[in-house]
Fold this sequence. Notes:
By secondary structure, the chain is an all-alpha fold. Helices cover 74% and strands 0% of the residues. The chain has 11 helices and no strands. Helix 8 (111-123) packs antiparallel against helix 9 and helix 9 (127-139) runs antiparallel to helix 10 (143-158). The longest helix has 16 residues, at 143-158.
Amino acid sequence: EAETWFHKAAIHGHVNAMYNMGALSRQQNKLKEAETWYRKTSGLGYVSAMTNLGVLLKEQNKLEEAEAWFRKAANLGNMEAMYNIGVSLQGQNNLKEAKTWFRKAALRGFIPSMVQFGKQYLDRGASADAIFWFEKAAALGNQDAQKLLEISQKSLETMIIPEDLEVDSELDEIFEKIENPELQTTSNVQM
């Protein structure tokens, strides 16, 4: 029944209803319909729709257009879009610019970016900086950050990774989860 009312309101130009139609279509796996609603809403300046449109386009392997929508949303302050740009750039091995976007979102309090920003420090051997960001994310309840914090602290204390710790597989599993930009959408219906 809500879908019926959202559809009626969307047809009459109600921006939140258009966005909600996109989100509902996405949830129902009606991806073309979701894309249509997200495009309409994005064109009206709805930032969350820009991010979600970028994710849909990325899933269709339309990477340039996806990144363009992520950048529009990120430049308007959307943290998920900032994170998604970072993930995309990291996948292209453009680590310097990826770090910039992760940092922007991390400084605004976006937890996945805090973890990713810390990971970049960890990859460069800057354990103290990594610990700082892992602590921030862990304090906000992120379990992956808590595990990475423990690993980083042990590593920093002993200057070696403990033998009984299977770091590669544990880290790979954590990073696999946080590097998935599809997890960083706003697909919930908004009132």
